[in-house]
Amino acid sequence: MSKSIIHNLFKGDKTIWMIFFFLCLISVTEVYSASSSLTYKGGAFWTPIIGHVGTIIGGTIAMVVMLNIPCKYYKLATPFLIILSLFMLVWVLCFGQSTNGAARWVSILGFHFQPSELAKGTVVLATAQILSGLQTEHGADKRAYRWIMGLTGLFALLIMMENLSTALLLCVTVLGMMFIGQVPRKQLLTLIGSVIGLGILILILIFAIGDDTKADDRQGPKTEQVAHEKPGIITRMFHRADTWKARIEDFGSKDVPPQDVDLDKDGQKAHAAIAIASSNVIGVGPGNSVERDFLSQAFSDFIYAIIIEEMGIEGAIFVAALYIFLLFRTGHIASQCENNFPAFLAMGYAILLVTQALFNMLVAVGLVPVTGQPLPLISRGGSSMLFNCLYLGAILSVSRTAKKRDTTKDDGTVQEATSTQPA
């Protein structure tokens, strides 16, 4: 009886489930270790980890619900999610709660909600539907590019006002989906060129408007005040330019001798580097981190540095490998789909999760500027964990309910699949 219940609950691809359980195990262990600052502030030893375990359980329930919904019905939710996401993004710009000078959160019935998480998933869902609906024998129709760019551009613009890194993450994900969806090469090259040009323009505006001496990462919450002092739509869009400029300059600055490092000004980057160096390759062991007490976001944005400190290089490689396995396993699931929509949807969510994980890990080891992206399914965070579980649930739904491609001939031999049919 118990085996039957377990089988009915954990439907879908078993490899995806195993990856999820390994990530959850690492998450509970490392968040428990890295939450010392929360324990000290709250005065309760078990409260942070109990809350995090509760979030994981809630996310798992959401996964089970999601995978039991046939993926073909996701299309019905697309227009409603687009309207809801746009409303929430505008709402958070006007009335959102401020964190580090950025109004990224809204509170609904006591639950702190990040609208950009909903918006990311909505854009991936809509992009999968556009690519599948406008798919031809020779790839995506040219109209697909215009529809996708219009939708993504609108959402990315709204998200960018409060979280530039999330907007960039979304754009990279959509670009990957268009490549998989065989959008005409000329359009993709035009897009890449436009993105490079736009990126240069944004950098120019950041350095023209931003004042790194007033960045919230360095000297407290002064960015918000500076933003109110700068009128105009451009400065409103770039009201976090002070923070962005400081992060870019910190990343591009020359290596500073250890004795000259200012731990007050560059605390996150410096303590992350110390944590990695303290691992001595083999790690200090779970729960033995020292830098968790000094990294302000040890349980979130910089949890990968704590993983390296405690689990060593082997642990770091294992965590990175889990995300790579997730991407390749999802690719295998997508390749078995007869219709395009579930294949594009699964790959879109896998690219989103893996790209965000890559951003987080590169930040932790100092290879890219600080972006503020949590490590998916590992970092502590309510809305992030919940939506990542929903994305994974959608992948499991595809593995369970999407119609599979017939690859056998009448004589029983295996036939190579040539192309997918329009969804």
Descriptive overview:
The chain has helices at 2-9, 14-34, 36-42, 47-67, 74-95, 115-133, 142-160, 164-180, 185-209, 216-219, 223-229, 233-237, 241-252, 267-278, 303-335, 340-364, 382-401; strands spanning 97-99, 102-108, 111-113, 135-136, 139-140. The chain contains 17 helices and five strands. The strands form two sheets. The protein has a three-stranded antiparallel β-sheet with strand order 1-2-3, with helices on one face. It has a two-stranded antiparallel sheet with strand order 4-5. The chain has 423 residues and is mainly α. The longest helix is centred in the last third of the chain and has 33 residues, at 303-335. Helix 14 packs across helix 15. Strand 1 and strand 2 (102-108) form a beta hairpin. Helix content is 65%, strand content 4%.
What does this entry show, briefly?
Helix content is 65%, strand content 4%. The longest helix is centred in the C-terminal third of the chain and has 33 residues, at 303-335.
